[in-house]
Amino acid sequence: MEPVRVTSSQSKKIAVLGAGANGASIGADLTRAGLDVVLIDQWPAHVEAMRAHGARIEMPDETLTVPVRAHHLCDVCTFREPFDIVLLVTKAYDTRWSCQLIEPYLKADGLVAGVQNGMTADTIAEVVGPRRTIGCVIEISSMMFDPGVVQRHSPPPRSWFAVGAVAPEAKGREGEVADLLRRVGTVEIVDDIRAAKWMKLVSNATTLVTTAILGMPMIEAARVPGMRELMLRSGQEALDAGALQGHPVLPIFGLTESDVRQTNRLVEVLLDTLLAGFVLPHTKTTVLQDWMKGRHSEVDDLNGLVVAAHARHGGAAPVNAAVVELARRIERGDLAPGPQNIDLLRSLAGG
Ligand SMILES: NC(=O)C1=CN([C@@H]2O[C@H](COP(=O)(O)OP(=O)(O)OC[C@H]3O[C@@H](n4cnc5c(N)ncnc54)[C@H](OP(=O)(O)O)[C@@H]3O)[C@@H](O)[C@H]2O)C=CC1
Ligand SMILES: CC(C)(CO)C(=O)C(=O)O
């Protein structure tokens, strides 16, 4: 009989904190890989559904039902053994308090990886320390409306991650997180995770809140006359903001250096790569899902950062400012997402 090969990941205690659309799917893949993983979420009905029936992951060609170990937030205080690795898969706006919640349950040499959109890595580092922080770019496209059920539109061959240390003290440990995420999709280890995350933010500024304002799936919204041009302007402002902050242009989504350097249409390349490779015609963004569930969105952590970066350098980002303004009106209940908003968006954005 072959001896059992115990890999380092197999002996690690792992938590997925925030087991929503992406977290439940990641937790299911890690569970299927035989790893010691628990999923923690604050939606009671969702946790109960996963406990009763497993996590149901509906993908285009396959549906999995995975018997995950799901916990409510209030169970955290019952945990006895600290975690080696916490994958934080909450929304960006839940980063700080989620880290504060889990920090007492993290090993002294444990790691927290922010598997999120937005520039969350430094917030994580402020709470758990830079030597225990790994930043991450995530590209899995998924939706969740019913407890226990994820609609994962990008199965593992179409899911992509980049991981990197935020500080020299954590360099060399990226592989520990990459080894987990390789069970979920393709993973690249990068030197400059802040720059990689800003490149993702360029894609997010192009697509997420912009299309959600029209209340439509992304691909449909991008076909509304005038919308694609507006989305590209939004992304370009984000790309320019990255340059103002000194972030180099880096390939993401599996693109190569030459794909991103030998083009003056970088934002368009990112948009077309996302729409062709990672999403389905009916994919609604994570932002639109938030609004459909009556929650606020990550707009401050995405478009808001673009506006702030330009302002710090004495400039403006009119499209992103318009996006933030309309998102606020929607979140206050003064405006409903819908295709009619294109005119308002264009006029506020100046054109
Ligand atoms: N969905 C997608 O297609 C993509 C999403 N992303 C990014 O991935 C991240 C996660 O997004 P997504 O999975 O869509 O988000 P979801 O809202 O579906 O999932 C997040 C879950 O975390 C829960 N939560 C919040 N705080 C805590 C906490 N402290 N402890 C435990 N659970 C908590 C939320 O509960 P509650 O519902 O009560 O708030 C929710 O169930 C975001 O940054 C998003 O932008 C990136 C690429 C694609
Ligand atoms: C997949 C998509 C566009 C949908 O929510 C997304 O959230 C992202 O690319 O970050």
From TrEMBL:
The keyword Transmembrane helix does not apply. Keywords: NADP, Oxidoreductase, Pantothenate biosynthesis. It comes from the Bacteria. The keyword NADP applies. GO terms for biological process: pantothenate biosynthetic process. Its EC number is 1.1.1.169. GO terms for cellular component: cytoplasm. Residues 192-331 form the Ketopantoate reductase C-terminal domain. It holds the Pfam family ApbA. Pathway: Cofactor biosynthesis; (R)-pantothenate biosynthesis; (R)-pantoate from 3-methyl-2-oxobutanoate: step 2/2. Residues 14-154 form the Ketopantoate reductase N-terminal domain. GO terms for molecular function: 2-dehydropantoate 2-reductase activity. It catalyses: (R)-pantoate + NADP(+) = 2-dehydropantoate + NADPH + H(+). Belongs to the ketopantoate reductase family. NCBIfam families: apbA_panE. This is 2-dehydropantoate 2-reductase. It comes from Rhodoplanes roseus.
